[in-house]
Design goal:
Layout: H1 2-15, H2 20-42, H3 48-67, E1 80-82, E2 87-89, H4 95-103, H5 105-122, H6 130-147, H7 155-176, E3 187-189, E4 192-194
Antiparallel strand pairs: 1-2, 3-4
Helix pairs in contact: 1-2, 3-4, 4-5, 5-7, 6-7
Amino acid sequence: MLVQLMILLVYLYDKNIIGKFLTRLSALAFLVMLVILTYMLATQKNEKSNEVKYENFESYVEDIGDKGHPIWGAGLGSQFFAKGRNMMQTYTELSYMDILRMYGLPVGLCFIFLFFAPFFWLWRYYPRSQFLKRYSQGYVLFLILSGTNPLLLGSIGLTALSMFMAIVNKVKEEEYGMWNEEREEPLVVDNCVLR
């Protein structure tokens, strides 16, 4: 319910129907409620899924730090003992911890940075592109969601990353033109005008 109301507020904000101040104030209130609700759900003691994730997190910390190879990683397809399921597993729902365990800390952090890199590339274009603002908000929510679901390392996560990088490159191209050059006359290739 809160997410639907947030989408409605974004729509109202974009159309400037109820005023930007009231919309921003409402969005802040809904964001605070969403954070409180998320915290309450994440810290429930009787929730089986949370118990499994917390125990698996402890297993990751032990495997990466004490038993594993923090620099080189355990490798793709390697198994570790997951306390949450009480069995050997190759991966769990904690995608970012899977990356650190498999690739090691240096390469794993670079790989995680790769998912967040488009934000650094588009920072200068962000205020000017409404589409980029909305897509990046959805991408951030996807990165949060995929941190606790096995989506990030599959085709869905890499497709989302590829889409975001393509959008960033498109915005850069619109800003600077083809090949980052200023041209006075349009480039014509096979009767097609490139601007």
